[in-house]
Amino acid sequence: MAISEEQSNTIITFIIDETGLKPFQVQQTVALLREGSTVPFIARYRKEQTGELDEVQIRTIEERYGYFGELVERKATILATIEEQGKLTPELRSRIESTRLKTELEDLYLPYKPKRRTKATIARERGLEPLAEIISAQELTAGTPDEAALPFVDPDKDLPDAAAALEGAGHILAERLSDDADARAMVRRLTWDQGVMASRVPADKREQVTKFEMYYDYQEPLKNIPSHRMLAMRRGEKEEVLFLSLVAPVDEILAGLKFRLLRGTSIFRPLLEGVAEDAYKRLIANSIEVELRLEAKNLADEAAIRVFAQNLRNLLLAPPAGGKRVLGIDPGLRTGSKLAAVDGTGRFLGHVTIYPHTGANRVPQARQDLLKLVDDHRIEMIAIGNGTAGREMELFTKETLAEAGRHLPVVMVSEAGASVYSASEIAREEFPELDLTVRGAISIARRLQDPLAELVKIDPKSIGVGQYQHDVNQTMLKKALDDVVESCVNFVGVDLNTASWALLSYVSGVGPSLAKAIVKYRDEQGSFPTRKALLKVPRFGAKGFEQAAGFLRIRGGQHPLDNSAVHPERYALVEAMAADLGVKLEQLTTDPALASRIDLKRYVTGEVGLPTLRDIIEELKKPGRDPRKQFETASFRDDIREIGDLKEGMILQGVVTNVTAFGAFVDIGVHQDGLVHVSHLANKFIKDPNDAVQVGDLVKVKVLSADAQRKRIALSIKEAEPGGSQKAERPKGSDKKSQPTPQTGGGLDLSAMERAGFRVKRK
Question: Of 66, 399, 429, 447, whose CB count within 10 A is highest?
Fold first, then answer.
């Protein structure tokens, strides 16, 4: 069902009221989205139209427009259904049309929704509706309920006495009460506000030792449960270790239902009190519990996904080493270490397998093979995966280079997800003739050159920075992570002539199919000389060009602005600026001082305002610049390679690998991430650990404790220097505000817990 203009205007009003944004901002953003513009394009190139909304605000409008669009469609279906029944009153129509909540809409529809055969249905079939009306009117103050029910006694209808008739009428009234939208809203509100989530362990499992022991006898207010505890309890329930229940404020709920049901005094008061209890316990309680448990789960999912998204963003935007010739090493012990060389563009050059850890007699050959690969391919940097044998390989490599008089940077690189890439369709397409492990070494080398370009080839869930990623809503997770990857790719920009189809697929307006078409055209016709040459790619139309062009770069191309974020639609404007300065366009893009002389107010028009002009000037000052942080690496101590080498009080350098609601995990080079509890992240109180550190940050940490047997390492950032003044510092050039970042929430990462030595039982 297509949304009409009138319905769209109604939705826009809802969004304005909900977000507090200005009407024109929402109206223009919705218009751009409806005509097919992407979020990155709108945020970067339509600032005047949206009032400079950022990506987070635009995605919020997009999400809420989708929600209210579904709501509008559902309303139309429900209104038509009720109207067909001949029961649609003006008041009911008004309530349905004005509601902004899906739950309220379904509550309003409940009395008219087709039901299976219920006790109330049977009572109506037996002719007890009139008795229910008499009881509901509560007008009789003399006599007894049995006397009022006597006319409805009929053994042929299975109503042998007054008690049976009253019971049937009570069922009708109980169903009416349970179908009442306002009554359900009251029960829902009280249960959410005062309800308690209780967790118990079955008696036969009480003595078992599991990771859920803290929840064996646990209670917490439903509305206050942090994401990680909710997900942990649900995981325990799924693994049949825990039994969860929602303890509602029954007394308050029954009092509220009776207040709604009872009017004055009548002979039916005791019966109606029983109706209220029956309606709640038999018909309302279970459905509300299921609904609110699902709501709590959804909120926990959203919080966990926000943490995952934030960590993924920081990882994808990790600083690149750049176009260096790199030797990637996938370390191994018995099976050997795979070495793969790539050139400055990531092109595979050659590989070899060495065995430096399987006996002294094989060390000389391993050294010779390593040095030969370094010399043959003029290697400038070495990247070593941080998995098994990573530190041993790092030491071997440094010693080999030192003995040979070679002075090359040796960098430890996270290999999370490398094995997933190695076996993927993308890897098979790139290197069909190579072994999986060699593909992994190539991926490690490329991660050092450009983490973003390589990591986009891997399912984000496999990168190792999430929490409970297999438990949360998978549709929501995929949408959120895809949005993050899209945002990061377009924030950085993509080299049109070297990017893989996987990277190009995330460019605004492109997608997988068109990305493959671009690469195929490039392979057949050669490098693109200009951005406009994209229009020669089959199926690449004007709209796609508008959305994508500004995020694609051509280095050394025919047009100097093609290597900048200046959109082709503004080339004529920049050329006019150059002419007004009396210089050539090439000079304007190579001399930052010239850009500083431009008077922006001269170029303001009805279509182009100061926000766009300021962006253009920034690009002219640094055309083609990479907005990511400056490249730095953590320096692990050579004498610290295992947990047993750690001593309490040591001050070490490390890199943040994961951030959760309870703290951060830091790699200090001992094959086991250490945990910095949230209380040890900074001297001041922080609500969100991401405010103190982010994935990829280089930090100094103090070793608080190291348990080699249990593989647990406790670290502190705030105590890493005398006086406790040390805080996590981001590498030079880092600017948290320069990136559009989603709000974060709490959660627990099982894989990170495992790396920290906590026992994690998986099915």
Answer: 447
